[in-house]
Amino acid sequence: MRRRLEDVGYLVDEGLATACFLALRLHRPVFCEGDAGVGKTSLAGALAGMLGAPLIRLQCYEGIDASQALYDWDFPRQLLHLRAAEAAGVTDVERLEAELYDRRFLVERPLLRALRTQPSVLLVDEVDRADDEFEAFLLELLSEYSVTVPELGTLRAGTPPVVVLTSNRTREVHDALKRRCLYHWFDHPSFARELAIVRGRLPAVSARLAEQVTALVQALRSEELVKPPGVAETIDWAEALDALGATELDAELAVATLGSALKYREDTERARSMDLSAVLARRAAGA
Amino acid sequence: MAAVGGGTAVLVGFGRALRAAGLEAGPDRVQTFLRALDVLGPHRRADVYWAGRLTLCGGRDDLDRYDRVFAGYFGPRGRAPGPLARPLRAAPPARPAVRETDRVPGSGEDDRRPGAAAALASPAEVLRHRDVAALTAAEREQVRRLLAAFALRGEPRRSARLRPARRGAVDPRRTVREWLRRGGEPALLRRRARAERPRRVVLLVDVSGSMTPYADALLRFAHAAAHRGPAGSRAATEVFTIGTRLTRVTAALGHRDPEAALAAVAAAVPDWRGGTRLGEMLRAFLDRWGQRGMARGAVVVVLSDGWERGDPSLLAAQMRRLHRLAHRVVWANPRKGRPGYAPLAAGMAAALPSVDAFVEGHSVAALEHLAAVVRGAGDA
């Protein structure tokens, strides 16, 4: 499992590898929580890459409902069809009615598409943003992997999609939904693993630069920041420095590009007051 | 890594040990756990650890306890595969109740109840304006009943959800459905408009030593507030206690019965009557919850006397942060009701510039006023 995920450039630890393995074998969704930028969302992409399946993403937001997540009818086309039939002089009302709710007028939204595409990976992003009614609806869908469209009957997935749910913990997600899932908490990776992730994602960046950026980010994370940088920020920072043509990092350059990793004025000021060159020197001596 | 011996009974026993430690590892979760182990094959210690952690835990707060129980149950052989467990917390001290006998000097019945008005007003009416720190046991009972009738809901905001309405944009879904019903004949236009939802309310209740006389009443208020929200959206009110640490008590307040809810809060809160480090607590709240969205667009109410033992400048900075995130910040201070009060405590003075409404919080009437301010009705 681990190797297969590493082949698509996603490095996992034992816990996450176990989670992915169980998700595939038990057909259970994986419920991912953790700080922003630790790779919750990209897990779904990695799984899709590993399985060679399309990634179908549903971004949750307040007020999302079944017609935006599951399916809708293409009303304008239905009306047009009705007019066309009228013009052609069709009088068979029953047949006409049956035609109106034909599959070709069905607009598939992400959840239905995930059920009907096999195999597929479904990402339900930031489920804590949706309302609790939507959670109940999701619960039904994820336990049966089937939906009922009144006009068409029940649509069932032959092979259930692999489901990844993410949450930022702005609201407690209902326990009934969590019980259906495998729960995984994402921690910030260790230095070695983060460095491996950066090297894997940005093979063109010089080894020294990747190492220095990772060391700096790890040092920043141990400071008390408003928003500690995640792995995504490490990659952004290394990429930005590479775009500037840097192969090595010094304190001056680091301060100039801090904006790639830190997104709050307070944090930037705090980082400026740190002795960045000392952090870099320590890493150089240790390596 | 070493193997873990034993059959199903041992593993089910592990589930029971977790439940005893306060995890919600119900039978269905244990069943998933067993199925997971089945799939994983021979029971390596690390596999048991991860299978259990993935199936039996439901939140970050569970992980610490899980690690502890795992090490205890399967023995600390080798190193625990997860992060090192923290030592067990001491049993929580008893919940403080409103003091029964010792009254605040000078607040005797005579100088609080002007004769003529008191003769006309019902006892409940008088009680509404009494300081809850200076009540007798019988009066306190009445105050409890008054508090139970509370409703706290945030001022309305327009949500992204659309609801059928008389005026507004045309709703194609319902309109065309209607037309299809009439055989494609254009008829009445159906319309929809943005629905209104109350804003989320976040209560931060100070339970430190200086707030002891008020903590009981304020938590009762929080309980009533968390329960009397609009139907179906009880989660719209979040409650935290602050003292020497930050504790989320929304779930503990979930009991319908206030006594049971307060007992659950007492068990969950480790720092009754400790010191106050408001600035640090506020930072913990913003880092862990607020910035991720809980405070965003919400009405945040701080119920505290503003007695800060830490650095007031940290409190000021965190209050500025909170003010930028939240829709409105309300500060309810029980001491404000005292005659001659001035916000001289360093913490209070530091916080005030970032507060939208500064209200009293010492009596039922004051809390009623607070509820109105949260609703956006009353002006402070």
TrEMBL record, chain A:
<dbReference type="InterPro" id="IPR003593">
    <property type="entry name" value="AAA+_ATPase"/>
</dbReference>
<dbReference type="InterPro" id="IPR050764">
    <property type="entry name" value="CbbQ/NirQ/NorQ/GpvN"/>
</dbReference>
<dbReference type="Pfam" id="PF07728">
    <property type="entry name" value="AAA_5"/>
</dbReference>
<protein>
    <submittedName>
        <fullName>ATPase</fullName>
    </submittedName>
</protein>
<feature type="domain" description="AAA+ ATPase">
    <location>
        <begin position="26"/>
        <end position="201"/>
    </location>
</feature>
<dbReference type="InterPro" id="IPR011704">
    <property type="entry name" value="ATPase_dyneun-rel_AAA"/>
</dbReference>
<dbReference type="InterPro" id="IPR027417">
    <property type="entry name" value="P-loop_NTPase"/>
</dbReference>
From TrEMBL, chain B:
<dbReference type="InterPro" id="IPR011195">
    <property type="entry name" value="UCP010256"/>
</dbReference>
<dbReference type="InterPro" id="IPR036465">
    <property type="entry name" value="vWFA_dom_sf"/>
</dbReference>
<dbReference type="InterPro" id="IPR008912">
    <property type="entry name" value="Uncharacterised_CoxE"/>
</dbReference>
<dbReference type="Pfam" id="PF05762">
    <property type="entry name" value="VWA_CoxE"/>
</dbReference>
<feature type="domain" description="VWFA">
    <location>
        <begin position="198"/>
        <end position="375"/>
    </location>
</feature>
<protein>
    <submittedName>
        <fullName>VWA domain-containing protein</fullName>
    </submittedName>
</protein>
<feature type="compositionally biased region" description="Basic and acidic residues">
    <location>
        <begin position="97"/>
        <end position="114"/>
    </location>
</feature>
<feature type="region of interest" description="Disordered">
    <location>
        <begin position="81"/>
        <end position="121"/>
    </location>
</feature>
<feature type="compositionally biased region" description="Low complexity">
    <location>
        <begin position="81"/>
        <end position="92"/>
    </location>
</feature>
<dbReference type="InterPro" id="IPR002035">
    <property type="entry name" value="VWF_A"/>
</dbReference>
